[in-house]
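An example makes the point: we print one protein in full, the chain in one-letter code, the fold tokenised, without further comment:
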Amino acid sequence: MQHDELPEWSKKAAEWAADYHATLRERPVRSQSAPGEISRQIAKSPPDSADSMEAIFADFQNIIPEGMTHWQHPRFFAYFSSNAAPASMLAEQLANAISAQCMLWQTSPAAAELETVMMDWLRQALDLPQVFRGVIHDSATTATLCAVLTMREHALKWRGLNEGLAGHPPLRIYASAQTHCSVDKAARLAGIGQANLIKVDTDDDWAMRPDALRQAIQNDRAAGMLPIGIIGCIGGTSFGASDRLRAILNISKDENMYSHVDAAWAGSAMICPEHRHIWDGIELADSLVVNPHKWLGASFDCSVQFLRDPAAQVQTLSLRPDYLKTQEEDEITNYSDWTIPLGRRFRALKIWFLLRAHGLDDLRNRIRNHIAWTQLACDALETTPGIEIMTRPNFALFTFRLAPHDGDADESTRELLQQINADGRIYLTQTSHQGMFVIRLTVGQFDTTRDDVEMAVRVIREIAARVTKQN
């Protein structure tokens, strides 16, 4: 394929995309493919001579869509949505056409400067203090790892970068059990170790207990360990639990410990002023992460980390050989110094397109609708025989289970989830709550309507009645 063929095939791709989105409601949400079914349709070896674009595009249409779980489906109520507003898709198409490697200001001045402005737009939208500056990562896992590496080096006075961790006392990080598994991964990859990530006791609202946190820190110091950081949670993945940030972040200040807040999903809701009380105290955080690709409509990948003072993270992550130095270094920002990869994609473009094409008012209305419709779904299922609400809505997420009069509730709930997802009209996932198998329902797909949520309730009721009768 040559450049002069690109307009024709780009048009075909755009037409296919438009038809795909127009017909999503007719497709099963989760792929119905069996393991190995897709790979059996693909040649075992690469071709020696070029295939025609007609053949390639036909194979794409015939093989790939049926093997995909449709994350842009309006009845995707699983995990947290990974959204892609049309304006964001268009921006990605343009960024792909430019195909810049945006590692330094001089390699892509527009990409670097647009990122700076877009981070400030988002900072204003979330009502964060002006001191915070942002950077775009691929995902919250990377942002959290950057924060954990920074808290490690902050505590070691940046000796770990050269000396390693040998010879230092065991380093300890503190978080609640509601934090995402990316926190566990960060503790492992940063050399701190799973055993040194302390999951602090929570209260009846599943928020980290400040008294238990302070006691754990004191006990560890007395035992010769080195407490280095605290990680708070806003909108936990299992059922949306949030820590009381002001109390725990004040402890981090008292103890001279670096702090990070995981608000990857629920942080987007803070563009709505009525929800900001939930993260009261966020201005005390050293670092926080919010994913625009979850609830704001920026296509994956697009995770934003805000930093009170980027200098600590830059000192931790920056490594600049002579061939990457910039003459105008005192006047510019090289965001590769803030992140783990040297190479960087032009992600700021889709945020610019998205915020301009929708405006904050439209994005706020979508989030408000999702939260309201989640409450309606919870209320409806609460009156359904055999359905037990396990956790009430936090933001746009609640959990439930099937609890028949006779039989095992966990087994019945597993069967209910399996039959719902095999049915294909909606897609749900599970979690564990107090040792019980429960089903999560979260509303957040960009184009979901109230009718879609009401259909979800009907499907759950219909299949729950069938499973109860079978058992």
About this structure: The mean pLDDT is 93. The first strand starts at residue 133 and ends at 137. Residues 93-354 form a domain with the Aspartate Aminotransferase; domain 2 fold (CATH 3.40.640.10).
